[in-house]
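Q: what sequence does this backbone want?
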């Protein structure tokens, strides 16, 4: 047990060092030598845990996904009613991105390097974006009262709007150019989605 814990601690130490290097130097400018030096371990130790730089980056994305999202977003956080759970879920999504400078810098890194290293972007989509989509689909299935026929498309629309909001307001520094507060965004999305549950009275009458 102690050996396993030490191994995990060493891997975490390496990944923390890798994050510092990737954010400071970009993917192309980061070497395994620099990661080892920043992490305070030997180069063979880095290779012993991660075969190459791409494997190291993949493990880092998985770590970020686990710590920033998977441990926070669980089916238990969905709540009992859409009116209560949807605003809370959206706020958690936005806050997780908006309040994390390192994560914002990491997204900038992936976007900036995706042209030369498309596999980095695919790794990001696989371990961060796709699980988020699946979680939102799960949420919609837990709340069939919304009545959406295509939960995958709706989930992508919801996530897309949240990501766009965080991208323009925080990651790309656009808050003073096209401001949109978190509260206004959440209130608007919630109102739109709840209309599928509680349509206007005249709309109900037309359907009879």
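A:
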């Amino acid at each position: 047990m102690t050996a396993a814990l030490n191994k995990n601690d060493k891997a975490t130490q390496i990944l923390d060092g890798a994050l510092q290097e990737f954010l400071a130097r970009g993917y192309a400018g980061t070497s395994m030598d620099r990661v080892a030096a920043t992490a305070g371990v030997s180069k063979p130790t880095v290779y012993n845990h991660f075969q190459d730089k791409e494997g190291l980056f993949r493990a880092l994305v998985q770590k970020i996904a686990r710590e920033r999202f998977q441990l926070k977003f669980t089916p238990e956080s969905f709540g009992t009613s859409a009116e209560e759970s949807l605003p809370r879920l959206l706020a958690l999504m936005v806050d997780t991105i908006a309040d994390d400078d390192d994560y914002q810098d990491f997204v900038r890194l992936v976007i900036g390097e995706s042209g030369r290293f498309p596999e980095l972007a695919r790794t990001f989509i696989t371990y961060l974006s796709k699980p988020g989509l699946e979680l939102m689909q799960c949420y919609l299935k837990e709340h069939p009262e919304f009545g959406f026929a295509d939960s995958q498309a709706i989930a992508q629309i919801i996530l897309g709007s949240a990501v766009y909001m965080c991208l323009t307001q925080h990651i790309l520094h656009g808050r003073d150019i096209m401001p949109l507060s978190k509260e206004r965004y959440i209130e608007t999305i919630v109102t739109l989605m709840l209309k599928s549950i509680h349509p206007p009275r005249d709309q109900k009458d037309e359907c009879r």
